[in-house]
Amino acid sequence: MTWALGRPAAPSRPTRRQLLAGVAALSVAPSAAGCSLDGAPTPSVATWWQHRGSRFFIAHRGSGDVFPEHSLPAYEGALTWGAPAIEVSVVRTSDGVLFCQHDLDFRRTTTSQGLASQTTWAALADVRIEIPRLGPRWLGDRRPGLARLDTVLTRLGHKTVVVLEAKDPEAFEPMLALVVELGVQSCVVCKLHQSSRRIPRAREAGLPVFCYFGAPEEVTADRLVEVGATLNREQDLLVIPTGDGDNALPDPLVAAAVATGIPVCVFPVHRRSEVDYFAARGVQGFVTSSYGYVAGAVAPVTATEWEQGAIAPGEMTVRPELAEFGLAWPGSGVVQLAAQDRMAFLTLGQLAPLARPTAYRLDLQVRVDRAPADGGPVEVAFGHPDDRYYESGQGRLDGYHALLGMDGTLQLGRHQAGNRAGMPLAATVPGPALTVGTWVPLRLDVTPDTMTWSRMDTGAAVTGHDATLRGSYLHVGRASTTGLISLRGLRIS
């Protein structure tokens, strides 16, 4: 997708390590009933509506880009980040226990198989949520178990707004009954598909409605008008998809949604640039599975967290929610760009904004694990104005690229929006060919008017002179549709 520039400001934000410590503390010491985490009035749908402003964020699946989705750590992580609303999906076991999971079966996100509706809760005692692309931090003994809905509502109720969806139709009425039993009605919004016949029942229960279109092909101007006419602009939300993963939802459809007068949200949102793109078109709400990063609740870092075995908020492949594009973790502190049949780049949003975008040093080490068939290079793309996904030759972003070819050559160039061909900034510098399985230390030095790309094992370097662009966003990747490369030791100074 092509997104607009920008991101919300976020002064005095906690670090990732502090946030993880906060999650652990929350699990043993919930805040006092009747108070929010910062001593403000108890959160409710009414107070959220009153204070949420022209841009507001809902944590999707807890914060499923960086935590195991729909787990207690995911929900509590989003709560620690200050998420004013958290989306929770609900399914039901054969013996009537409600628990939190997106899918009706266990295959995609857990260590089990089969349908939830055909399994007893007791049979799930040893089942764990397992999403390998998130890193070793969330594997082995650290894999969280399934979360019961009563536990989640007790932890989150009166601390944040909970957007509840019964994925299993048989879970809907028991879910409403549990909300009443636990006395959290004032904190709950009912999430329902635009075709659902349960919207009147949610209103009867006194719950606002999060009414969503699940896929771009469902969205038509006429249907938006029909659905909008059934919603209440004072308490409901109209929710549309951002697009199909490659192209944004067409502007006329976004405009038709906004024209209903119902506050409009979009999902799924992974990037800050998506927020600005849709906000410029009148959208107010953003359903994001990387809440800490997208909402600006996490401070930028100066190094990756690969040594800790975890994805950082803002660190993204082209589709961070999909396993097929996910990182592999072949060793301690090492990530591998393993996606095939297309280039594989990693957005380093967690580093942005850089403390000094006009003068910094980037160090990293690269290893070729399987040579690309076309000899394509390792690439660092930098100086970008925003966090839109980058691949070589897209012609979507203004920035620079530093290349290391399999033949050992070093190159520096500039790329421009609207032009698929890059512009060299200096003559190519030769060097010894790369060897499969050998780590190569690399360094990029940026000053206000120059940039130098160096191979630290040989001393070879290429310098270019250009002062035009000094954006904060970077990508690193494999500029080939085949092969495997691994990365480690990436840091900014």
How are the SSEs placed, and which strands pair?
Elements: H1 16-28, H2 45-51, E1 56-59, H3 72-80, E2 85-92, E3 98-100, H4 149-156, E4 161-166, H5 172-182, E5 188-193, H6 199-204, E6 209-212, H7 221-230, E7 237-241, H8 251-259, E8 264-269, H9 272-279, E9 285-288, H10 291-294, E10 315-316, E11 328-331, E12 334-337, E13 344-348, E14 360-370, E15 378-384, E16 399-404, E17 410-416, E18 419-424, E19 439-446, E20 450-455, E21 461-465, E22 473-478, E23 484-492
Helix pairs in contact: 1-3, 4-5, 7-8
Attribute tags:
TIM Barrel; 493 residues; alpha/beta
Structure write-up:
The protein has 493 residues and is an alpha/beta fold. It has helices at residues 16-28, 45-51, 72-80, 149-156, 172-182, 199-204, 221-230, 251-259, 272-279, 291-294, and strands at residues 56-59, 85-92, 98-100, 161-166, 188-193, 209-212, 237-241, 264-269, 285-288, 315-316, 328-331, 334-337, 344-348, 360-370, 378-384, 399-404, 410-416, 419-424, 439-446, 450-455, 461-465, 473-478, 484-492. It is built from ten helices and 23 strands. It has a nine-stranded mixed β-sheet with strand order 1-9-8-7-6-5-4-2-3. Helix 4 (149-156) crosses helix 5 and helix 7 packs parallel to helix 8 (251-259). It is globular.
